[in-house]
Amino acid sequence: MDMPVNVPIDNPNADTEWNDILRQHGIIPEKPPSPTPIIEEALQEAFKRAHENRLEGKDLDELNELEDEEDEDFLNKYRQQRMAELSSISKSSKFNQVYPLQKPDYARDVTEASKESFVFVSMTSSLGTNTESRLATELWRQLAQKFGDVKFCEIRANLCVEGYPEKNTPTILVYKDGDIRKQLITLREMRGVRTTLEDVQNLLVEVGAVKENDHRVLRRESSTDDHDSKTLRSGKLKYDEDDDWD
């Protein structure tokens, strides 16, 4: 009767000639396939996609600046894409301002209107001393000018709901297809008094009001946003107590 032989194995995972012999005889298992080729292939594909999409989010002016760096046919493809996007946005941009609301017209101007486009309602402070409400008012103005295909509305909270708590202003309501898709009680869910245009743009993307790759969202406007945010937080706002609310 053959006696079992103890075969010395230092490291079964090592790439040695001895281990190859042991694997051929089934003494040690085959090594699992190395993940390195799979990882390298995935990275190469990611780099390739990043290179192919390197012009995503650039507007026409930025594309024109790349004439000496990029292939003309490749640039023209993106120029045509941007022009088509601009044409589509231009056709659907019918709002471009903040609409003051009155309670009797709320169903028509908000609920019914949301069946055609997204409607963002800001229920603002009734006192005019709430910093977040003043910030929301200024952000609404900027957003309405930038995203003309989205309807931005404002109503003083006490005109909408009698006795509405001042501490809950501004309250943001997002309507689409006759329903409230999202609501925010104050700007706390974003960054409070530090909320920027970019923060609210992210909200637009989150609820589907604009696409993530919309060039209006992707354009870098950090210097302008920073300046506006500092101005808003310092309280240097044009605020007219005689706005057409009554």
Q: Which regions are unreliable across 5 or more consecutive residues at pLDDT < 50?
A: 220-231, 233-246
Distance between the termini: 106 Å
Order of helices and strands: HHHHEHEHEHEEHHH
Strand content: 5-15%
> What global shape is seen?
elongated
Report the average pLDDT across residues. 76
| Order of strands across the main sheet | 1-3-2-4-5
Structural class: alpha/beta
- Quaternary structure of the protein: single chain
Described by strand count, sense and barrel closure, the largest sheet is: 5 strands, mixed
CA radius of gyration is: 29 Å
The helix content is 40-55%
Overall number of strands: 5
SS summary, helix count: 10
Question: What would your notes on this structure say?
Answer:
This protein is of the alpha/beta class and 246 residues long. It has helices spanning 17-24, 36-52, 60-64, 72-92, 106-112, 131-146, 157-160, 197-207, 215-218, 222-233; strands at residues 98-100, 119-124, 151-156, 171-176, 179-185. The protein has a 5-stranded mixed β-sheet with strand order 1-3-2-4-5. Helix 6 links the parallel strand 2 and strand 3 (151-156).
